[in-house]
Amino acid sequence: MPHLATAFDRGSRWESTRSGSEAVDTADCSGELERKEGTGRAATITASMVLHKRTDPGAEFDAARTTAAERIPGRTEVRTAQGLGDRAYTVVHGRTATVHVLDGDAEFTLSVSTAPAGGRVTPERLRPLLAGDMGALMRRVSTS
């Protein structure tokens, strides 16, 4: 994650899972990010990909975007993200920033939640970093 690396160092705790069926394949990864200026956890990152093999995920993706602000209590900001896949949007809520992308039959999600003492990295600052890293992640997946 080259863009997030400008704000965080990689932590030591990481987990990943993969599963597959006739209908969908999934891959998930999560880990901790540490402060650049000190020690300790500054944020948690999660990435997921779902490849739909039998159904078109477009209608559900669009519905999730349309209702995101209603489903998440509190002040939630939803914006269209340009230049990622067929359709993309970002959600900022509290200390969490998330980018959701639909690219063909694949859904990608990348989310960072900052710790209360996470430093000066705000979810609003994370928005362009997440978009840049999502693009890099999608390019990497498409070549593997």
Radius of gyration: 15 Å
Main sheet attributes: strand count, strand direction, barrel closure:
7 strands, antiparallel
Q: What is the helical fraction, as a range of percent? A: 10-25%
| CATH level-two architecture | 3-Layer(aba) Sandwich
Key features of this structure:
144 residues, alpha+beta, Protein Transport Mog1p, Chain A, 24% helix
Task: Detail the topology: elements first, then pairings.
Elements: E1 8-20, E2 24-35, E3 41-52, H1 58-71, E4 76-80, E5 87-93, E6 96-103, E7 106-114, H2 123-143
Antiparallel strand pairs: 1-2, 2-3, 3-7, 4-5, 5-6, 6-7
Task: Report what the structure shows.
- The protein is an alpha+beta fold.
- The chain has a single domain (4-143), classed as Protein Transport Mog1p, Chain A (3-Layer(aba) Sandwich).
- It is 24% helix and 46% strand.
- The protein has two helices and seven strands, in the order βββαββββα.
- It has helices at residues 58-71, 123-143; strands at 8-20, 24-35, 41-52, 76-80, 87-93, 96-103, 106-114.
- Strands 1-2-3-7-6-5-4 form a seven-stranded antiparallel beta sheet, with helices on both faces.
- It starts with 7 loop residues before the first strand and ends with a helix.
Quick structural overview:
This protein is α+β, with helices and mostly antiparallel strands and 144 residues long. It is built from 2 helices and 7 strands; from the N terminus they run βββαββββα. The relative contact order is 0.20.
